[in-house]
């Protein structure tokens, strides 16, 4: 070697040099933050006064006051441009935090010039900077402090879409919110579709499950508004979401199913959803409804329930034999699963052509068992009542209701102390409806016990909830007044007279009529007649009778008016036309 060292010495010197450089780099790495903190302290500044003036000048140039922002716009722009373009992450964070505070306090439009540093910050290599600036942009867009067209023209959609791929939930939420807000502007529609939606749809078709997750999550956020749903449909997004239902990744399936659930809430989009051939959407949703993953199954049921508002979709669901998998869900141990299934089935029973099929499929037997379950929830009771009411309206349904223990389930639910008034209204309405059908009326009159009568009388006195009061009293009035029934009612005559007095004073004729029917049914019982005699209710009956007679007399004095050849709604100048 030219140095004159032997081979071994040269090798050792090279190793020494290598380790020395390594130690120096490590020392530099450790000392650098300490040095930075020392430099920031006024003790090491050239002049404490000049450092104070610099900080004051920077604070003044980044003022949050609207008027000061306008007065010092050029100075603010220069400072922000310098900070956002800096390679120092701390300086970028300072600029991003300024925009975040500005987005909270600004009450006037932000000049387009001050939007330029935002683009630099969106392109930062630091994720915290990107999250802060994207949140600032969301706030400014929500408050209409920035021109949405300007945001798109500056090319911010590209870094926003890159943030969606970041894997950070906050960054993804902020960027999706920005894209949705930008999509709501008619002038941006084409640009957002080309630069925002279509790249997401392309990403959704990827074979990489992670990329599919990101894309389906972002597409879900584009289905929360009418504008973005229509935009997604125009871009061909619906078939992509339906195809994602068939994927192997549970999260992708859940996100795409949730997106389709939001889309199906707009009935005008049903035709476009159904145009995806051969019942593909409904088949995919029914498959998901039978999934062992609860959140996927429940979301699929919700989506099918929303779609079932369409009669054509109901017909297609019945053609696909949807009842059996839904009945299987009614037997699961999970209350949430049972609630999802019974809610969808109650929607199907409201469609008249489905009723006979649903009865023959044994749905009422499953509902009867469901009502007898010890953990029967308000949701299950409400929708079970709807199913029983709908299916009992057909001749096959009445017999099935009696055989399926539905009546036992309803009467058992009536005694539950934890039901809300809304649930009780559905329950008593169902019982009242069943009491209008002779075979069911007889069966219920035999099955009812003193506990049921006590509960119904108590609910009839709920004057603060007129509908619940009416329904409960109507059930009592329709009981077959046998000797056994009268014995059950006797202990409650005083309480019954109290609510009957309220009914007779009600301005609503249906309450008055129900009161009269109940009194007429019970008057044959001597004990009731004794309590009625000379009491307040008898006085009200007499007053009501006198009013009715006076009304009848007045009506007799009025001759029926002969039909006029002139249309009464037409003005005089049109009579001869």
Spatial separation of the terminal alpha carbons = 123 Å
Q: What is the share of helical residues?
A: over 70%
Please outline the major beta sheet. Answer: none
Q: What's the β-strand tally?
A: 0
The number of helical elements comes to 35
Please, what is the oligomeric state? single chain
Work out the radius of gyration.
37 Å
Determine the structural class based on helices, strands and strand pairing: mainly alpha
Secondary structure blueprint with pairings:
Blueprint: H1 7-40, H2 48-61, H3 66-71, H4 73-85, H5 89-105, H6 116-122, H7 127-142, H8 148-153, H9 157-164, H10 169-183, H11 189-204, H12 209-221, H13 226-234, H14 237-244, H15 250-264, H16 270-274, H17 280-289, H18 294-307, H19 311-319, H20 323-330, H21 335-349, H22 355-360, H23 363-371, H24 378-391, H25 395-403, H26 406-414, H27 421-434, H28 438-447, H29 450-460, H30 466-477, H31 483-489, H32 493-505, H33 509-522, H34 526-532, H35 536-557
Helix pairs in contact: 4-5, 4-6, 5-7, 7-10, 9-10, 11-12, 11-14, 12-15, 14-15, 15-18, 17-18, 18-21, 20-21, 21-24, 23-24, 23-26, 24-27, 27-30, 29-30, 30-33, 32-33, 32-35
Walk me through the structure.
It is a lipid-anchor. One of its GO terms (molecular function) is protein-membrane adaptor activity. The chain has 577 residues and is mostly helical. It is built from 35 helices and no strands. Helix 24 runs parallel beside helix 27. It is elongated. It starts with 6 loop residues before the first helix and ends in a 20-residue tail after the last helix. Mean pLDDT is 83; it is low at 44-65 and 566-577.
